[in-house]
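job 3f2a | input accepted
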Amino acid sequence: GTFNDALRLANIPPNSTPDRLFHYLRGTGQPTNYCLHSLRGHTKDVFAVHFSPDGSRVVTASYDGTAGIWDAHTGALLHTLRGHTDAVFSARFSPDGSHVVTTSQDSTAKIWDTNTGTLLQTLTGHTDWVLSAHFSPNGSHVVTASYDGTARIWDANTGALIRSLVGHTSDVFSAHFSPFFRPSQDMRTLSFPHTLAPMDLTS
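job 3f2a | predicted structure (203 res):
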């Protein structure tokens, strides 16, 4: 993401340093011949970007309250995802690339069809900003993390809340499923200040 309304896809040589990459993506450095596409369409800061599993598309999340799905090969905007009522903090593809989940300052997460841009589900229940969301490895569930101090597990197909994970005493910034996740397996949440808590979903 960038602190402006443009995102650039770049072909970075193997010997590029992280410092050069940072300045390049911020638009403050040279050379510029690495740039493949400038993705323009958002009207405020871009917070997050994520490639689809096959690398053919990119999804972006912006303070302008929208997410965008782009063609990674041409830079064309395919869909603008409108529905949140405040800043969109994150956007992630499902493992098969057919869906995107977005999170927002409006205290919700939303699941979208990536082929049509259609809103499929709104995940409602958090009482503060939703900072991140990730699909389970098989795409059947979504886990969200929120400033309200909880993480929540949702059915990705119906939008139903499966479980609220409580126990942190401060904001929960991120939550991920185990790579070996099954509904009876565990997951991990990351919370300020730097605590890692495994959660057994069977209890």
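job 3f2a | The chain has a mean pLDDT of 80.
job 3f2a | closed
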